[in-house]
Automatic annotation (TrEMBL):
Keywords of the record: Oxidoreductase
Family note: Belongs to the short-chain dehydrogenases/reductases (SDR) family.
Keyword Translocase annotated: no
Superkingdom of source: Bacteria
GO MF, any single term: oxidoreductase activity
Keyword Oxidoreductase attributed: yes
Record-linked SUPFAM superfamilies: NAD(P)-binding Rossmann-fold domains
Protein name: NAD(P)-dependent dehydrogenase (Short-subunit alcohol dehydrogenase family)
Xref: InterPro entries: KR_dom (IPR057326), NAD(P)-bd_dom_sf (IPR036291), Sc_DH/Rdtase_CS (IPR020904), SDR_fam (IPR002347)
Domain Ketoreductase span(s) in chain numbering: 3-174
């Protein structure tokens, strides 16, 4: 059976590393992006040049209709989706809780957890037999991100609960749902938080004394999706250098 995957926010960072690794292991990959078509297309070109199968698809995964379009497009290009990586996520500038505006809070929730709900629901409605979902949560769900982005941490806490609940609902059907909780990974996301060198600043406080790479996170995601993890569901892999 074809292994057909969607990686939301697959054009850069952890999503790009995951898309490439999945393709190298024989998955057909839909590289979803919201605004950065150039990066997503570069990932697709690299996959195809290495003999893999992929296409990019623009969709805001916090939008119900666009999520349906994303799954339709993938099904038309390949076959029904068997593996889903809910990776898309955003954060905004570091600030104290009291300064967080409602509009920002709602945007973070919508991009980080509504997107996960919509994509997972679409997956569940369509998946035929076995399959797997990996949610890209964050160490922030455990650490809370005080004075930085409690809104972001709360969205990831919600993702952890969704992971647990959905894994229990889907277990009798043999569909596995797990999450990774990265922290301090070298990607562009920290620039969006207003501190491009955040990982370097925090490195000394991380037990392993360094930040992590997107490839290190992708390895865990792809393992959780694979048959090697066939008895793993409702589980969380922390990738935060021991923090
Ligand atoms: P990144 O480089 O900023 O990538 C985020 C990706 O998400 C982008 O490709 C972006 O697409 C996409 N995206 C955001 N909102 C979207 C939406 N509504 N619809 C579709 N795509 C959307 O960040 P990253 O560090 O690789 O983050 C990936 C995931 O890891 C996120 O969920 C993040 O919370 C999580 N994470 C990261 C770290 C870290 O230290 N970097 C730590 C813990 C967890 P466009 O560019 O096209 O807009």
């Amino acid at each position: 059976m074809d292994k057909v995957s969607i990686v939301t926010g697959g054009g850069r960072g952890i999503g790009a590393a995951t898309s490439k690794l999945l393709a190298s292991q024989g998955y057909k990959v839909c590289v979803n992006y919201r605004s950065d078509a150039q990066s997503a297309d570069a990932v697709v070109r690299e996959i195809i040049a290495s003999g893999g199968e992929a296409f990019s698809f623009q969709a805001d995964v916090s939008n119900e209709c666009e999520v349906v379009d994303l799954f339709d497009a993938t099904e038309n290009a390949f076959a029904p989706v068997t593996h889903l990586v809910n990776n898309a996520g955003i954060l905004f500038s570091q600030m104290s809780f009291a300064d967080i505006e409602l509009e920002r809070f709602n945007q973070v929730m919508s991009s980080n957890i509504t997107s996960c709900f919509l994509c997972s629901r679409e997956f569940v409605r369509r998946v035929k037999s076995t399959g797997a979902i990996v949610n890209v949560s964050s160490a922030a769900s455990r650490l809370g991100a005080p004075f930085e982005y409690i809104d972001y941490a709360a969205s990831k806490g919600a993702m952890d609960s969704l992971t647990k609940g959905l894994s229990l609902e889907l277990a009798p059907r043999g569909i596995r749902v797990n999450a990774v909780r990265p922290g301090f990974i070298y990607t562009q996301m920290h620039a969006d938080g207003g501190e491009p060198n955040r990982v370097e600043r925090l490195a000394a406080q991380i037990p392993l004394q360094r930040g992590g790479t997107p490839d290190e996170v992708a390895n865990a995601i792809v393992w959780l999706l694979s048959d090697e993890a066939s008895y793993v569901t409702g589980s969380f892999i922390d990738l935060a250098g021991g923090k």
